[in-house]
From TrEMBL:
It holds the Pfam family Polysacc_synt. It is a multi-pass membrane protein. It is found in: Membrane. The keyword Transmembrane applies. CDD domains: MATE_Wzx_like (cd13128). InterPro entries: Polysacc_synth (IPR002797), PolySynth_Transporter (IPR052556). It comes from the Bacteria. Keywords: Membrane, Transmembrane, Transmembrane helix. The keyword Transferase does not apply. Its main location: membrane. The chain crosses the membrane at residues 35-53, 65-83, 104-124, 130-149, 161-179, 185-209, 230-250, 310-330, 350-370, 377-396, 402-423. This is Polysaccharide biosynthesis C-terminal domain-containing protein.
Amino acid sequence: MKKVLSSSLSVTHFRTIIPFSKSLVNVGWLFFDKIFRMATGMIVGIWLARYLGPSEYGLLNYVNVFPLILAPLASLGVNNILVSEIPIQNVEAVDRLVRTTVSLKFLSGLISFFLILIACNIIHASNQQLILLISISSLGLIVQCFDAVDVYFQSIQKIHYSIIPKVISFSLTTAVRIYGLTAHYHLSFFIAISICDILISYLTIYWIYLTQHGHSIFSFLFDKAIVQRLIQLAWPLMLAEFFIFIYMRIDQLMLKYLADSHELGRYSAALRLSEVWYFVAGAITMSFYPSIIALRAHDYNGYLNRYQKLLNILAVCGITIGIVFSILANGITSMLYGPEYEGVGPILSIHIWTGLFVFIAVGTNNWFIVENMQRFLLGRTIMGAVVNAGLNLFLIPLYGAIGASVATLLAQLCAAYLTNGLYSRTKEVFELQSNALLFVPRFLISRLRQIL
């Protein structure tokens, strides 16, 4: 009897460990990709910032941000829907879902691209060079349609099929960037190389997917029923992503118009060091989310406990990064960017704390989808966007890039955390986030009590 019981427990334990181990492997691949990109991209990006100087670097970031106004229309907000749908559907249904999503996003990306061209020709009618630069950057709106396959591989715990092509493409294009820096190439060259990187990696990933499923490279699918369902589920997320752009990126556009390219360049230099850490939240959440979802149907308390552990980890990461960069901001920015970027340190020491609220927001975004509360996501994001735009309008003329940092931090605090405490249906998430934010102080206090 004891042997049977022991054997049963071992099998149960083994089955529990398998998905957990796959999650760890998935996290490992994601971290390898992101850390490789972060390290290499940081070196080349800082080199590029020093090469261009604050004014041209500010122009580069403006050109990259301008097309993002319509990125939500291009993506349609369907990636989060895919994350929730792929684990619960059969192989054939998932294949139809993924291929239809690629076709749908290609069409929406094409529409977004032409709308950006129209807007650009109206706003910058007298600046043909700027129109050309934005046109090149806007091609990314079309290419991003293939990231649906990337989401698929992440959801089935086979992320290496995405990571390897990305790393190879990034390595090749990084070598070309370095050549461009040594040869003193024009700004347009570096924008074009970024698009080539995305194009090469995503086309390769899509080819791998089609090959695995026995489809031709020219095989397209557009299932109207799937399209209607995706749009019905995702339109609140699409609008939410638009307002996310407002409270995460409107500061850069407003700095360009309310200040100048030089101030935008200093702010962009701070953002490069501040936002590079956001991948940590996405990697952890994406890889552990399937196991969290699996608990909801049969063990709701376990589901909440697992969510709490996830948010605790994210909060610890956010607080640690915030403290380190607040202390070392001046020294780090002076060493990396040089005297031309004087004053970036205080901007960074404020903006870095935005990451804490980004982390706990990323950790709970899929909770709202599972609970069928997409409209609430839209509502809280609109509030954050209004707060950010309003504060930027007031603070940028007075304090420049520092004002933009304060506005973004307060907007993220409102959208990611405080709004959850205003509604009865989201009090559960608010409590989970509050416990996570208090986890580090409580831990330190308990340790001090033990010592004393």
